[in-house]
């Protein structure tokens, strides 16, 4: 084989490590000094015009969030300050990999993004319908999405590309097991859960920080389509999920979700046996049980799809006082990547569009830019500090300091990481019928993939659970004696 060329930046500088982001210590956070990561994300966000690169097709609706339980011991955020308080929301559901014209019922994770219009600014909860994701290091995000999109040679989706990436990325196994199980194809947006997936933080009036994961549990119950039902609907009604959500709200059958939070005291993260900031892992409920927070209801359809659903822009960095991010490497990158994508896709003044505009006063020194459509703050000063009464920063809203340690380096995120136990636990939680459907879905998706990739992926399934790996191998007509590395597993 021809020796591969050395990978470089766009400026031709050789790249030493394309697998691990630059972080402060092995658990992060990601450093802005990682110009390589920034270049990859910025270039990736500009690969399509004007459609979203991911989450292109979706549906949305307005509603309310109502507080039902007191969590003020964890946070001073005003939207949670009293039971019964209501906050207006806008929710956008979406498929992840499909383009704008794709069918709603494909096997794909679903986006579950909620914009809370709070009195102290917008809170954007940018989640999915799964509690984990395929990767834990943002340097691999564009590579992952490329593998799920279209083959540059044929212009078609490629099972070989997908399974090649997954088989070379064992951290993806947990999410792959979710994806090919029953919940990989929700029956509707109303019949699926939502999760923050990432670890975020809350902080209270005393300056105490807590790490949290958000859960949105559907009150309609979980319902899913089989592969056969989904395929039929893709042909009969590619917009089935859009129609279902719209029709339900129009007839007054307003969908609801109960909102919960898992809470981990800041200090416990240092000694917890799992990395609590690893996006490929869940926190066991026996250690950190769900605590009810409120109810989310959708009760009003948008009046114009483009203006409200297509131009809706969500940012995980939109966190009102009392809420914060975490050292989750993927989240750290999304804090930058999401607004960067919006500035490119719908313009630098995207936050002033009606669907994105906060319901509280906005005071910034942002001026001008493409498609500025308001008064541009007239003759008010456009710099700070100034002597003319312009808005000023206020230390009362400062987030508690975050202690970090470790040398800045590109740490191997796979070294010493258990990527199999939780995937195996998920498999073992399934009923016999669910396991059979999972294996059948995987076998169908892997049929025709080069044998070397099949063998490599079967090793991962087997390490999660021997029955899991043996079942996939049998379905593909592969004897376990052919699979390398099993004896050593």
UniProtKB/TrEMBL annotation:
The active site is at residues 55, 128. CDD domains: catalase_clade_3 (cd08156). GO terms for molecular function: catalase activity; heme binding; metal ion binding. Keywords: Heme, Hydrogen peroxide, Iron, Metal-binding, Oxidoreductase, Peroxidase. Coiled coil: none annotated. It catalyses: 2 H2O2 = O2 + 2 H2O. Residues 8-392 form the Catalase core domain. Pfam families: Catalase, Catalase-rel. Its cofactor is heme. SUPFAM superfamilies: Heme-dependent catalase-like. Its EC number is 1.11.1.6. GO terms for cellular component: cytoplasm. GO terms for biological process: hydrogen peroxide catabolic process; response to hydrogen peroxide. It is an enzyme of class 1 (oxidoreductase). Heme binds at residue 338. It comes from the Bacteria. This is catalase. It comes from Pelomicrobium methylotrophicum.
């Amino acid at each position: 084989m021809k020796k591969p060329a050395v990978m470089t930046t766009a400026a031709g500088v050789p790249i030493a490590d394309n697998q691990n982001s630059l972080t402060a210590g092995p658990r992060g956070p990601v450093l802005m000094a990682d110009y390589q990561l920034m270049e990859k994300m910025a270039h990736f966000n500009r690969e399509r015009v004007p459609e979203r690169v991911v989450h292109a097709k979706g549906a949305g609706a307005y509603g309310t969030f109502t507080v039902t339980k007191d969590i003020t011991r964890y946070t001073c955020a005003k939207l949670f300050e009293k039971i019964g308080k209501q906050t207006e929301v806008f929710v956008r559901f979406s498929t992840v990999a499909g383009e704008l014209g794709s069918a709603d019922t494909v096997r794909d994770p679903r986006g579950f993004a909620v914009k809370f219009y709070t009195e102290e600014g917008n809170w954007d909860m940018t989640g999915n319908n799964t509690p984990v994701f395929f990767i834990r290091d943002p340097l691999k995000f564009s590579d992952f999405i490329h593998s799920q999109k279209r083959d540059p040679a044929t212009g078609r989706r490629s099972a070989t590309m997908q399974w090649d990436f997954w088989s070379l990325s064992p951290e993806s196994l947990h999410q792959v097991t979710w994806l090919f199980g029953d919940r990989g194809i929700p029956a509707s947006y109303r019949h699926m859960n939502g999760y923050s997936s990432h670890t975020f933080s809350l902080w209270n009036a005393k300056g105490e920080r807590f790490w949290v994961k958000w859960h949105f549990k559907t009150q309609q119950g979980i319902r899913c389509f089989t592969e056969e039902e989904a395929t039929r609907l893709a042909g009969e009604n590619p917009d089935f999920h859009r129609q279902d959500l719209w029709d339900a709200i129009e007839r007054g059958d307003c969908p609801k979700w109960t909102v919960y939070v898992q809470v981990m005291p800041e200090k416990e993260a240092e000694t917890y046996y799992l990395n609590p900031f690893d996006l490929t892992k869940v926190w066991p409920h026996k250690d950190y049980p769900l605590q009810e927070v409120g109810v989310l209801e959708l009760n009003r359809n948008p009046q114009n799809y483009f203006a409200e659903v297509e131009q809706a822009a969500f940012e995980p960095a939109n966190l009102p006082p009392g809420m914060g991010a975490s050292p989750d490497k993927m989240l750290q990158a999304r804090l930058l990547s999401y607004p960067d994508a919006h500035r490119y896709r719908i313009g630098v003044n995207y936050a002033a569009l009606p669907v994105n505009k906060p319901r509280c006063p906005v005071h910034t020194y942002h001026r001008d830019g493409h498609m500025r459509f308001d008064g541009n703050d007239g003759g008010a000063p456009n710099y700070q500090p100034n002597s003319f009464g312009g808005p000023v920063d206020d230390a009362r809203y400062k987030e508690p300091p975050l202690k970090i340690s470790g040398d800045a380096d590109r740490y191997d995120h796979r070294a010493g990481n258990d990527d199999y136990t939780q995937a195996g636990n998920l498999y073992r939680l399934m009923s016999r019928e669910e396991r059979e459907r999972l294996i059948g879905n995987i076998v169908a998706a892997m049929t025709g993939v080069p044998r070397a990739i099949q063998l490599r992926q079967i090793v991962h399934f087997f390490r999660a659970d021997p029955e899991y790996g043996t079942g996939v191998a049998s379905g593909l007509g592969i004897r376990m004696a052919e699979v390398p590395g099993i004896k050593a597993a």
